Amino acid sequence: MGGVVHFEIPADDQERARKFYQDALGWRIEPIPGMDYSSVYTVPSDDQGMPSAPGGINGGMTGRTSDLSNPVITVDVEDIDATLQTVEQSGGSVVQAKQAIPGMGFYAYFKDSEGNTMGLWENLPEGERGEAAQ
């Protein structure tokens, strides 16, 4: 069973959206230089941005696209490639194949049987995390 580990909020105007979520919910939102993406912190987090509160989930904010037009829930899986095969066999489709985030892991997007875009996350093995990010 895969647990929810991340969310993404698409925005037409990220500056406006950052201000909204900071003011309305008190979230800390930090733009990532050189990317159309911001990290969203909803709970206290460690120095790598991982939630330090039990059950806490942090996320991101990105520019809105046709495939990412609504909030996305991301689920942790052991093997993204195998999960994407199961998604297709179950009536879903791949939106974005497995992509790497150096030093952290891999992500992908799929559409479920109802047309909702969902995310997948696969951690790098414990000994490989953080190496490429340093």
Summarize the structure.
The chain is α+β, with helices and mostly antiparallel strands. It is built from 2 helices and 8 strands, in the order βαββββαβββ. It has helices at residues 14-25, 80-89, and strands at 4-11, 28-31, 37-41, 59-63, 72-76, 93-101, 105-111, 117-123.
Features of this protein?
single chain; 134 residues; alpha+beta; 2,3-Dihydroxybiphenyl 1,2-Dioxygenase, domain 1; 2 domains; 8-stranded mixed sheet; 2 helices; 8 strands; 16% helix; 37% strand; globular
Care to describe what's here?
With 134 residues, this protein is α+β, with helices and mostly antiparallel strands. Helix content is 16%, strand content 37%. It contains 2 helices and 8 strands, in the order βαββββαβββ. Strands 2-3-4-1-5-8-7-6 form an 8-stranded mixed sheet, covered by helices on one side.
Count the beta strands. Answer: 8
What average pLDDT do the residues reach? 89
For the biggest sheet, the summary is: 8 strands, mixed
CATH fold field value of the largest domain: 2,3-Dihydroxybiphenyl 1,2-Dioxygenase, domain 1
What is the alpha-carbon Rg in Å? 15 Å
